[in-house]
Fold this protein.
Amino acid sequence: MATNTSDLRRTFADRRSKAAVRQRRWRKLKDRLARYLVVAGGLAVIGALLLIFAYLFYVVLPLFRPAGIEPVQSYARPGEGETAAVVIQEHGEMAVRFTRDGAVVFFDPRDGRVLQRVALPLPDGAAVTAVGVSDPQDQVIAYGLADGRALLVKPEFKVSFPDGKRRITPALGYPLEAEPVVVDPAGVPLRRLAVQLGGDGATVIGLSDSGLHMTAFRREESFLTGEGSWEPQGSVALPLKGDIRQLLLDRGQTTLFVLLGDQEAAFVDVRDKADPELVQRLRLVSGDERVTAASLLVGGASLIVGTDRGRLLQWFPVRGANNHYTLQPVRDFRAQKAAITRIVPEFGRKGFLAADAEGKVGIYHATAHRTLRVAPLSEGAVAAMALGPRNDVLLTADAAGRFSFAKLRNEHPEVSWSALWGKVWYEGYGEPAYVWQSSAATSDVEPKFSLAPLAFGTLKAAFYAMLVAVPLGVAAAVYTAYFMAPGMRRIVKPTVEIMEALPTVILGFLAGLWLAPVVEAYLPGFVALLILTPLGVLVAALLWWFLPKRVRFLVPEGWESALLVPVVIVIGIVSFALSPTFEDLFFGGNVRLWLTHEMGIDFDQRNALVVGIAMGVAVIPNIFSIAEDAIFSVPRHLTFGALALGSTPWQALTRVVLLTASPGIFSAVMIGLGRAVGETMIVLMATGNTPVMDWSVFQGMRTLSANVAVEMPETEVNSTHYRVLFLSGLVLFLFTFLFNTAAETVRQRLRGKYSSL
C-alpha cells in the first residue's frame, strides 16, 4: 500500500514538473493551432465556392437587366418638307432625313443641327408620288415618280482621319444607277413601293392605278475587269387587286406581304420573278379592329402587325402537311393602348420597336415574347422612327414635325425564363420546340438559347452512367469487403482504385474511336452479351455448387470469383462471334434498318449506350472505393453477433452490415453522380453533341459541361452567347450543389437511424 502511495506521489510530482507543464502547454498550443488551421481550411473552401458562385452570378446578371429608354434631346424638324424616311449612321453621330419632295437633309441627331442639304437628281417634271424603304440593314430608299419609274438612293457615311481627327463625310449613292428605273411600263404614277437590294439581285415592286408591277434586276460582272452592272430581267404584273395599303418585301426577295385595306393581308411567293404566285389571302384581325402599321423582322420571315387598339401581332409562314407554307398567328403583344403608328425592326436580332398615337415607344422581342419597355418619348403621335444599327439610339418624329432623340439600353432581349426553359416557336419550325443553336450560316437566322436540351442531356448521360456504375460498383464493393479473401482483396482493391487516375480524355478517346464502332458493328452480339453474362454467371455458380466437395475445396475460400473471369471471357467471345448470325436471324441482316423501319428508332453511332459504358467505367472506381471502405469498416462483432444468433451470412449482410454501412454507400453513389453530372471529356468525345431531348439509348445528347467546353473558346466576350454559357456553368454548379446537399441530408439521417446497430 505504501509503495502504491509513493508511486502516486511521484506521478503527481512528475506532472507538476516544469518539463511536464511545458509539454502540456506545447500540446495544447498544437491542438489549438490544428483546430484553427482546420477551421481556416474549411472556411477557405466555403469562401472559394462562394466566390465562384458570386463571379458566375456577376457575369450572368446583365442577362436579366431591364431595358431602358433615356430621352436625350427634343428639337424642331431639321430642314423643310414632310419626312418620308429617316436613317441613322452606325455610331449615332449623323442622321439623314428624306423628304417627300426629293430633298435630303443630313443632320446631327443629338441636337438637330443641319450639316448638309442635297437635292436628288429627279427628272424634270417628274413629281414624287411614293416612297419605299428597304430592309433597314441595307438602307435603300426608293422614290416613285409620276411617270411610273423609281429612283433608288442609299445614304453613305464615309469616315476619314485628316490630321489625325475622325471625320464623317455624308454622301449619296445610287445602287442601280443614277437614272430612274422603269417599274410600270405604262408610265402610270406609282402610289406604293417596295424595294430590296441583294448581292446579285434587286427587286422593285410598285403599285399604280394600272395594277401591281414587279421589276427584277440581276448583277452581271465582267470576267476580266470585275466591274459589275445591273441588267433588268423584265417587268411582270402581280396577281393581286384591292385596296393595297402597304407593300413589304423580304430581304431575300422571295416573299411579298401585301396589306389589303385595314384588316386583310396577302402572302405572295415571288421566288420565280417571271411567274409570281398568290399563296394565301387572310384576315389579320377580327371584329372592327383595324391594322394601322406593319413591318418585317430581320430576315423577312415574320410579319409584325400593329392595330388601332395597341395590339402587336406576329405572323410567319408555317409549313403544313402538304409541304406548303401558310401564314400563321404566333404571338400577341398587348402592352400599348393607343393605335400603333410605326414599327421598326432591330438590327441583327428578332426584336422591334413600336410607337403609338400617344407618343409612347415600346421595345419588344418577338421570339422571347417579351415586352421589355414602354415609355413616352414624343409629345404627339409618332409619324417617323429610325433605329441606330447598333440598337442603341432612337430617333422619332411626331406629326407636328418635332424630333426626339433617345438612347436605348437593351443588350440581351432574347433571354427570358420561357426562352431558356420552355418551348419556343421559332421561324421555320412547324411547332414550338426546345432548341439550342448558338450560331448559323447567316445573321438573319436567330440564335436559339434553350438550356432545356442541355440540362436534359446532362441528366441523361448521368442516368445511363449510373445505370452501369451503381450495380457494378456497389456489388463489387460488397463482395470485395464481405466475401473476398484478404489476399485477393489486397490485389483487387488497389487495382480498381488505381483506375481513378486514368485520364477521362483517354476513356473518351477509346469510347469515341473504338467502342462506338464496335457497338455499331456488333450490336446484336453486344445485346446478347448483356443478357448472357448474368445467365452464364448463374449457371457457372450452379455447376460449382453441384461439384464434389473435394473439388470445391481445392479452391481456397474467397477465391472462387477468380473462376468467373474465364467464364465471362468465353461468353464475350461467343456473343460477338454469333453477332452476324443473330443479325441475320432476328433483324433481317441489318439491325440499324430494322430499328429505323420496324421500331421507329434512329441509331447514332455515338450514342447514350456508348457514353453510359465509358462514363460508368470512369465512375465505378469512385463508387467502389468509398462503398468498399464503408462496408469493410463495419465492426466485425456485429457480423459475429448476427451469425451467433442464427443468421445466415446473407442475412447478416443485408440486415446488419449494409444497413450500418448505408450512409457510406449512399455517399459513394452521390459522389459518383456528381462526377457523372460534371464530366466533360467523355461526353464531348463519345457522343454526337446533338442537343436533342430523347431518352433513347441509341440517340446522343449534349451536356452542359461539354457545351461550355466546345463553345466558350469561340464566343465573343460579354455577348449574349458568352453570358448564357456562364449561365450554363451556374446551372451546373447548382445541380452539383443540390445533389451534394441532398446526399449529405440523407446520409446524416441514415447515420442517425442505423448508428445504434
